[in-house]
Design a protein that fits this description.
Layout (H helix, E strand, L loop, with lengths): L2 H10 L10 H13 L3 E3 L2 E3 L2 E2 L1 E5 L8 E6 L19 E2 L2 E3 L3 H17 L10 E6 L7 H8 L9 E4 L10 E2 L1 E10 L14 H13 L15 E9 L9 E10 L5 H12 L4 E8 L2 E2 L5 H10 L18 H7 L5 E3 L14 E3 H18 L4
Parallel strand pairs: 5-8, 5-9, 9-16
Antiparallel strand pairs: 1-4, 2-3, 4-8, 6-7, 7-17, 10-15, 11-13, 11-14, 12-13
């Protein structure tokens, strides 16, 4: 199977999220896999939005290797594209299009690698592909899948095909997305003493977040947790005391402090005049460098983790925050052909040689994973 032609076909499906509309793409991929002997299921996320679960070669008592990626892509952005974002053109060795890097190039490579891995000896334990809807808005498709009671099973190891330029990452920070709200009493702005200004309350709270102390020890892989206020809304007009305001807090957590502890600390810091609504709660994931699966991946990718300044963790969230704990905390690697710097960008592209390379890397990892004692 030509992985580049497949990647082009995937890009040509418009799965911008919102609204996603992943159903057509999910069934397109599912039909390809079914024709190659995979058992395919389409757990529903929402109307017009499907996940894909495809398995082959499963053995009782031997967990499969899991390859996972997402089918949705982000909006095009305000800046005009110089190419058609859904034409999937190849220009000077680059495959252009929305989702080429994040992460339809990776999905295509995983599908082809999964199929071709059965051309010789059947991989020990078999292969499970999990392709999700609605990842971009906080891994909601993966979370819904696990929370719905779907029997997701176990895994011997997990590969997440997010963009890494085919450099293996062994973890990423968690994400805690919060909406904070303040309320007050409106009044005419010429008599502010008659009102209660909700924006002032929000401003005081935001200053507290700017100086927020996590008091968490450093994570050897992920560093320290961070917090950022990214959006604020408040008031109705210039000459009124505002009676409501809200802002968002984006916390990136580490394995040294779980999100529920962070949330508790933030509530205590902001006090009773601020109400907190949790939007996304995903913990950090990390696999030790000395894990046998990690060692195999480093060897296959010819990656030296001991080089000074080398990146070993992804800066973004992935579905691993949901799937790794759900799949018996299997060793997890983030590895995909897309470019970190091009995700969500105008004129997004993926190098075609990286997509082809990813197929070879996945296949070799799948084979060698079966030889781990």
């Amino acid at each position: 199977m030509d992985v580049i032609k497949l990647a082009q076909k995937l890009i040509q499906f418009n799965t911008i999220n919102p609204p996603g509309n992943e159903e057509g793409l999910a069934k397109f991929v599912g039909v390809i896999l079914a024709k190659q002997g995979f058992a395919v299921d389409y757990p529903k996320y929402a109307e017009g939005r499907l996940n894909v679960i495809a398995t082959k070669g499963l053995l009782k008592g031997v967990p499969p290797i899991v390859l996972t990626g997402h089918l949705d892509v982000v909006p095009l952005g305000a800046k005009a594209w110089s190419v058609d974002p859904f034409a999937a053109e190849i220009i000077e060795g680059k495959l252009y299009g929305r989702g080429s890097t994040d992460m339809k190039g990776g999905v295509a490579a995983m599908v082809v690698a999964a199929i071709e891995s059965f051309e010789g000896v059947t991989p020990t334990g078999g292969i499970k592909l999990i392709l999700t809807a609605n990842e971009e808005l906080g891994c909601q498709g993966a979370k819904h899948l696990c929370d719905s009671g779907y029997k997701i099973g176990e895994a011997s190891a997990i590969i997440v095909g997010e963009p890494t330029g085919n450099v293996p990452f062994i973890g990423h920070k968690g994400g805690l997305y919060i909406t904070a709200k303040t309320t007050g009493v409106t009044a005419h702005s010429s008599m502010p003493e008659l009102g209660d200004n909700a924006i002032y309350k929000a401003a005081r709270a935001i200053i507290k977040i700017e100086g927020f102390e996590f008091n968490a020890p450093i994570d050897p892989l992920l560093g320290y947790p961070t917090a950022n206020v990214g959006k604020i809304i408040g008031g109705l007009n210039l000459n009124s005391v505002p009676d409501k305001a809200e802002f968002t807090i984006d916390v990136r957590s580490t394995t040294e402090m779980d999100n529920h502890i962070v949330l508790k600390k933030i509530k205590q810091q902001l006090g009773a005049e601020v109400s907190i609504e949790q939007m996304v709660n995903l913990n950090a994931i990390s696999t030790p460098e000395d894990n046998p699966f990690v060692k195999i991946v480093f060897e296959v990718c010819q990656f030296n983790p001991h080089l000074e300044g080398v990146r070993k963790a992804a800066p973004y969230l992935t579905d691993a925050s949901v799937f790794t704990p759900a799949l018996n905390n299997a060793p997890t690697i983030i590895l995909g052909p897309g470019e970190l710097s091009l995700a969500h960008q105008t004129d997004e592209y993926c190098y075609i040689n990286k997509i082809k390379e990813a197929v070879m890397l996945y296949k070799e990892i799948i084979t060698k994973n079966g030889n781990i004692p």
